[in-house]
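> example.struct
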């Protein structure tokens, strides 16, 4: 069980010390540094399977779609361990359930006892280093059959690992050896159609950011990573569920923290929470997250009932950017592509091209102009829930059946590599130490050249 908060004075003095920047051996948050989905200086294999370039596999107890995060030789992942089987369904199995038919209100929280845990593994051989239970009890609210009670990805820095379980509203900090640092409760609230929660944390400069947008909460909270003390917070004037994760956007003008959901995006100064700009009346990322490069962000959304535009917005904005008409161009919008908004998988930008996956259909656009340079079905892939990543000059895409493809990040996007692992995957891969880490239902896998 979680121990009491460590002395805040000592930890506060640690916080104001030198912040060690992440390296190529680190993967600090959902989609990597800043949440951009772009990873550099990695010598990953071009082919893999159960027989080729699989360095190790371990079974992680319980269930979770959270992405692993990595600091040097330590890999951290969260999981919900229950006293009954809670294996998530794949996409086809999930859409047949009542929640996918607008009947989520008929569902009730399962009568199970859950331990929400953090596990630490050695990236060299997959050896379990430690595990820690952060909170335990019965869940108050249901989740979609394809979701889990540990879908939010943690974040990590040189001093600790920080987690958020939206189902209980619990944020917590732990040292790299598993010793508890602090714990904070943001509240447990229902979500739209009983889908459950899924917004991952973000981290920047010793601060951790938690987005908790549900049917009865609308909070964005920034805490000191080492003490858990609230640095600043903001609440939307309207409730509404969002599974989008905040991103840290380092552009040519400044560093911004951007949150999204429903029909609104808001940018903040991550140091003090002052609002830089807001956009309303757009179909904002709610199931996926925002893409970014040094010049622009790229965002949009779609769902089974409607498909919004894909927007490209350049840096340097301020104030209210809301368009006169819904889903139209706005100040600082460089271009938009109608009915091209992403669904579950978040888009990614190389700075030259923006890649959007629609199930197994690849669409790519010139980042500067919005010109579509590629649209084709990747027949070796099935349904894609995990977000694509750009690894140096390649695009890595993983489908839910464990099929992977590597594409050259050029206008033709030729296939340069493929992989296959038998499992079900919704978690986005993590990349560090010249390795690919995949988190499936049945196991955690490390792929590297052998």
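> example.seq
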């Amino acid at each position: 069980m979680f121990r009491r908060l460590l002395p805040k004075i000592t930890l506060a003095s640690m916080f104001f010390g030198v912040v060690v920047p992440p390296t190529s051996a680190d993967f600090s948050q959902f989609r990597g540094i800043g949440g951009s989905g772009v990873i550099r200086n990695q010598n990953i294999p071009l082919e893999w399977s159960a027989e080729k370039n699989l360095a190790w596999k371990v079974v992680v107890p319980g269930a979770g779609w959270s992405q692993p995060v990595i600091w040097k030789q330590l890999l951290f992942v969260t999981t919900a361990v229950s006293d009954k089987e809670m294996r998530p369904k794949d996409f086809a199995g999930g859409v047949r359930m009542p929640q996918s038919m607008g009947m989520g209100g008929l569902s009730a929280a399962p009568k199970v006892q859950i331990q929400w845990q953090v596990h630490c593994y050695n990236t060299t051989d997959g050896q379990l280093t430690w595990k820690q239970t952060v909170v335990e009890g019965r869940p108050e609210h249901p989740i979609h059959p394809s979701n889990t009670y540990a879908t939010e990805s943690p974040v990590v820095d040189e001093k600790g690992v920080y987690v958020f379980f939206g189902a209980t509203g619990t944020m917590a900090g732990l040292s790299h050896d598993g010793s508890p640092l602090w714990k904070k409760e943001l509240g447990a609230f229902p979500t739209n159609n009983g889908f459950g929660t899924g917004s991952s944390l973000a981290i920047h400069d010793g601060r951790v950011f938690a987005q908790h947008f549900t049917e009865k909460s609308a909070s964005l909270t920034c805490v000191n990573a080492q003490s858990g003390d609230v640095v600043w917070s903001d609440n939307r004037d309207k409730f509404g569920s969002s599974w989008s994760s905040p991103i840290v956007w380092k552009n040519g003008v400044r560093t911004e923290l951007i949150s999204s959901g429903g029909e609104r995006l808001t940018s903040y100064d991550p140091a003090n929470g002052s609002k830089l700009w807001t956009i309303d009346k757009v179909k904002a990322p709610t199931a996926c997250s925002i893409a970014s490069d040094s010049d622009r962000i790229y965002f949009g959304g779609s769902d089974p009932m409607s498909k919004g535009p894909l927007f490209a917005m350049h840096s340097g904005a301020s104030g209210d950017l809301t368009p006169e008409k819904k889903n139209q161009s706005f100040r600082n919008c460089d271009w938009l592509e109608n009915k091209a908004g992403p669904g579950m998988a978040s888009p990614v930008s190389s700075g030259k091209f923006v890649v959007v996956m629609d199930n197994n259909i690849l669409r790519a656009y010139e980042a500067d102009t919005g010109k579509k340079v590629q649209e084709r079905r990747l027949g070796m892939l099935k349904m894609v829930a995990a977000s694509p990543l750009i690894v140096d000059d390649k695009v890595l895409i993983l489908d839910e059946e464990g099929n992977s493809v590597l594409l050259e990040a050029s206008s033709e996007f030729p296939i340069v590599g493929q992989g296959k692992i038998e499992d079900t995957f919704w978690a986005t891969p993590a990349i560090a130490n010249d390795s690919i880490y995949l988190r499936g239902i049945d196991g955690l896998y490390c792929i590297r050249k052998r």
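> remarks
Helices lie at 8-15, 91-95.
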